[in-house]
Design the sequence.
């Protein structure tokens, strides 16, 4: 029996809600963002990076790396996108 391939990263675009997403490097970023959630080699945490639309620079989402219960990276990523849509200075944890 073949095992399905392991997905260790997700990248999606999202529009941040009021208050945006908090980064380590520049504070809050707002507007249209690209969010990358990348499973770390430990298999139990993710690194999250965000990029503003039209920029080549990636920023670390505050609180990253973040724990991912049971390696549920897809569920974590979906939840994170929803939190960024709501805004409020979203952090990885």
Sequence:
């Amino acid at each position: 029996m073949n095992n399905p391939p392991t997905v260790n990263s997700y990248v999606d675009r999202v529009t941040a809600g009021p208050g945006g997403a908090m980064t380590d490097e520049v504070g809050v970023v707002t507007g249209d963002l690209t969010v990358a959630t990348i499973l770390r080699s430990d298999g139990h945490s993710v690194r999250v990076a965000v990029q503003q639309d039209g920029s080549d620079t990636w920023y670390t989402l505050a609180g990253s790396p973040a724990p991912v219960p049971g390696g549920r990276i897809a569920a974590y990523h979906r939840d994170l996108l929803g939190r960024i849509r709501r805004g409020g200075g979203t952090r990885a944890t």
About this structure: The mean pLDDT is 93. The radius of gyration is 13 Å. The beta strands are 9-15, 21-23, 27-29, 32-39, 45-52, 59-60, 66-67. The chain is about 15% helix and 35% strand.
